[in-house]
Design a protein that fits this description.
single chain, two-stranded antiparallel ribbon, 2% strand
């Protein structure tokens, strides 16, 4: 393999893997693995020290160039041996009980910490992933490794011994992979996430060991800049949630507190990643929460902690200092964000509603019926990255919680939302908060929302209620016009979503994120359903509980009638007649 150029090696490796898989000769495959491991170890061994007669060698000494060449040759030999080992492991022809598996594991484990050679590190992760995938026999009534003529007792004993050996090997691998977390090259994170997912799927180690080793890493990886790393980390979190659902006594209800431990981190990136991961789990297991009272109580407690008067206030005060840091909602970076204009983009009602709030940061208060949950507390964090993730989790809650459960969370949730809007210095945050408040108004009704709305922010509630009433009136007029035959095509385009729960189910990314048109008011009413259906397209229709696109956009952006017409015709550009 080392004699081949680098671009020819993938084809040869694929041929080796296919040949080993088709040959059906496990002894030959095991012998080839031993040879590959020996070559890898020989190339990895440090070279013998060069003999030197003097204290030092001159800079132009030929031995220096020879050392560089020898290092390059050794590196090429390591890569060639790793390619052969990877091809043999990918073939799946190595017996599960073969001792060569242990040799291959021990040879690849040191490579996991060699951050300088990212390509070799990725090959090691891929090799170990294939070993993990074939470590256990496939599910079936009989063990493929047991002889057909052996009696049942001997077969059961052999299967038990093989399972114990696999458990020990996988547990050792979990330890080795966890120890290499800080030495992974950026380009190898996706292959590492694939190995972690394989370990979780193969039921390696115990749930506490897997959680302590990989939960924080997977949560951060789910927000990585690389798409492959995000996909791999998300798959790992989903696999771990399934493992908890199958093996833990409390199911997924035991997994959410494990995830919530990340909220104790000091890094705002860790807080935001944990909130996103928790929202993902809540969304994926929304159906189970309907039948599992403990899971439902755990989810609801993230937004509002039930309590009686002083108990609720004491619980909120005990966690508030840990969850919030005073200051302004700023990011560490100096990048400029779009929508930095604050008051100029608001209508008069919103300016009046926010005028009496002051600039000082305020904390959400506990009521007699409940205190803010941990997600509600993080709505007033001093980092916008955390606030965005918390708002995304709240948005998911408005989609997955039915009306009674969502109404029960209002005492702890609404004061935090109003406070977040009052102290925000970016229009983007205020728009997102209003999207959530309008969803709560449509789904829970005006009475429950007004009962927990802070009195000093009554103007904000009045503005939201007025916009909602105006949107309903506008849609009613549009439906009447369509019934008269004047707007049939418009009704057909805008009314396809349905406000009665007949819309399509959203993917998590759609449920968690705030689309640009949503934060500008055109689709803020798309999700008023008891489940997770998203009704209403962007055409201002979509159902009885949706929002009119043009009216909401004009209200939130302060557009006059002419501006609204221009945006409707030209996507924000002036129409040809206006330009003339």
């Amino acid at each position: 393999m080392e004699a081949l150029p680098a671009d020819a090696r993938p084809g040869v490796a694929a041929a080796i893997s296919a040949t080993a898989r088709a040959a059906g000769a496990p002894k030959t495959v095991a012998s080839a693995v031993r040879k590959a491991v020996r070559r890898l170890l020989e190339a990895s061994a440090p070279p013998p020290p060069a003999a030197s007669g003097d204290d030092g060698a001159p800079a132009d000494d030929p031995s220096v160039a020879m050392d560089v060449e020898e290092a390059a040759v050794r590196a090429d030999l390591r890569h060639a041996a790793a390619d052969v080992a990877l091809a043999l492991a990918a073939s799946g022809a190595l017996p599960r009980t073969a001792p060569e598996r242990t040799l291959l594991h021990r040879a690849m484990a040191p490579v996991l910490t060699e951050r300088a050679d990212a390509v070799l590190q990725k090959k090691a992760y891929r090799t170990l992933t294939h070993l993990v995938a074939t470590a256990r026999p496939p599910p079936g009534p009989a063990d493929a490794d047991a002889d057909a003529g052996a009696d049942a007792t001997a077969a059961a004993a052999a299967a038990a011994a093989a399972a114990a050996a696999a458990d020990e090997a996988l547990s050792t691998l979990v330890t080795d992979v966890a120890a290499a977390v800080g030495e992974t090259a950026a380009s190898a994170r996706s292959t590492r996430a694939a190995l972690v997912t394989a370990l979780i799927t193969a039921r390696a180690g115990t749930l506490p060991a897997l959680s302590s080793a990989f939960v924080a890493e997977l949560a951060l990886g789910a927000r990585d800049a690389a798409a492959k790393t995000r996909a791999g980390a998300t798959a790992g979190l989903a696999a771990l949630a399934r493992r908890y659902a199958a093996d833990a006594p409390g199911g997924v209800a035991d997994f959410l507190p494990v995830l919530a431990a990340g909220l104790g981190g000091r890094s705002h990136a860790m807080l935001a990643a944990t909130l996103t991961a928790m929202a993902k789990v809540m969304y994926d297991y929304r159906g189970e929460a309907v039948a599992d009272a403990r899971l439902a109580a755990t989810v609801d407690g993230l937004f509002c902690v039930p309590g009686e008067g002083g108990d609720a206030a004491a619980a909120a005060a005990a966690t508030r200092d840990a969850a919030m840091a005073g200051g302004s909602d700023s990011d560490d970076s100096d990048e400029e964000e779009e929508g930095a204009e604050d008051d100029d983009a608001e209508d008069d009602d919103d300016e009046d509603a926010m005028a009496d709030t002051g600039a000082a940061r305020r904390t959400p208060s506990a009521s007699s019926t409940g205190a803010p949950g941990v997600v509600s507390l993080l709505l007033v964090h001093d980092k916008r990255e955390v606030i965005r993730s918390a708002l995304g989790a709240v948005k998911v809650a408005t989609l997955i919680l039915d009306r009674p459960r969502l109404t029960a969370t209002l005492p702890g949730l609404v004061p935090a939302l109003v406070t977040a809007s009052a102290v925000a210095t970016k229009a983007e945050i205020r728009l997102r908060v209003r999207v959530v408040l309008e969803r709560l108004l449509r789904k829970c009704g005006e009475g429950p929302l007004a009962a927990v709305f802070p009195a000093e922010h009554a103007k904000l509630l009045a503005a939201i209620r007025k916009r909602h009433a105006r949107a309903l009136a506008s849609r009613k007029a549009a439906r009447e016009g369509a019934a008269d035959g004047g707007g049939a095509s418009g009704a057909a385009g805008g009314g396809g979503g349905g406000g009665s729960g007949g819309g399509r189910a959203l993917a998590f990314d759609q449920a968690f994120a705030f689309a640009p048109e949503e934060t500008h008011g055109r689709a803020a009413g798309a999700g008023d359903h008891g489940g997770v259906d998203a009704g209403g397209g962007g055409g201002g229709g979509g159902g009885d509980d949706g929002d009119d696109g043009g009216a909401m956009e004009a209200e939130l952006l302060g557009l006059d009638a002419a501006d609204r017409r221009r945006r409707g015709r030209g996507g924000g550009r002036a129409a040809p007649a206006d330009r003339r």
